[in-house]
Amino acid sequence: MFGELRIRLDPWDVDYGPELSAEEEPEGQKSDVFPDVELPEHAWQPVYPAEPFLLDRIYFVDGVRRIDARVVVEGEPIAYGAFGSFAAGSVCVQDGVAQFGPCILDRLLVIGGGRSLDHPIPVMPRAAYRPVSTEGRDSEAPLQKLQEEMRLAEERLARELADADRTLVVVDGPLTFADPVRGAAVGFIKHISRFYLSSPKSLEVLRGLPTGARTPLFGLHGARRFARYSWFLRLIPPAAGDPPFSGIVRLEVSETVGREAARRLADATAWALPRFVRPRGMDPRAPQNLAPIGALEAHLRRRLGDRLLLRRHIQTLIVREVRSRGDSDSAGSSIP
Predict the structure, then answer these.
(1) Using omega within 30 degrees of 0 as the cis cutoff, is the peptide bond preceding 46 cis?
(2) H or E element in which residue 143 lies
């Protein structure tokens, strides 16, 4: 039916984009890749954890964000803005028990073009939006700023949680800090947008990686981020009809931890993380969206509150402001 084309089904729900979208890095942003960190590249083979890496606890850190209402700031030029909310939190797994940790909830009024307010905007009781400015002028700049603020909150939380012995913090997404902590923190990248590996040998190992095995460590150096050790891990085998690279995640840790510590962390993730995989059908991004992360995301979304209710209060606030100014061209009809 498909002729010579080898069609495979992307296992993720279409609303979340593809599981894999490996692309070339833009010129000037390419990372230098050092594949010989743990093994010479010609000797690469799947690596199984040598022995259980015993930890007292594992924290999973993640965040969710959303736009509650978009706004336009009139003037020359027009500026785009947004009322947005985000929540960042953690779930701790210890002695076989998972428990949610404290949550950071924040609401922002982001305005582009370098414009801003100097005071919070109360929309509802216990729902005030903190003014934030971004220099970006396009309509997506407020969302990018909201994402940036959420990442900073995740970073603060991860640093705090990792400041304890025998603790592993798994941060959903690229790791954003390089300085050492008492425990350990790794970035967990579930959407593969870069393979980094290019030699036939390394790609052969990655393609045939067994479940629970990882690639050898490789180094990543780039002008835009700190130096890291990285590795790929196979969570589950590809199902019939899946692409051969399906079920894989990439992890990374700052090079400041040292090569031997990075190797132990890579083994710890290979030993521990496949145990948190949920069956397909239970999560639209299975298997990469591990059970603690999926549960945490659902928990955090509930903390964001009712978006329709917030939007209605924002709309009411803006209409009152328009009418109080006497802007007849924008006064409009009553709110439905």
Answers:
(1) no
(2) helix 141-162
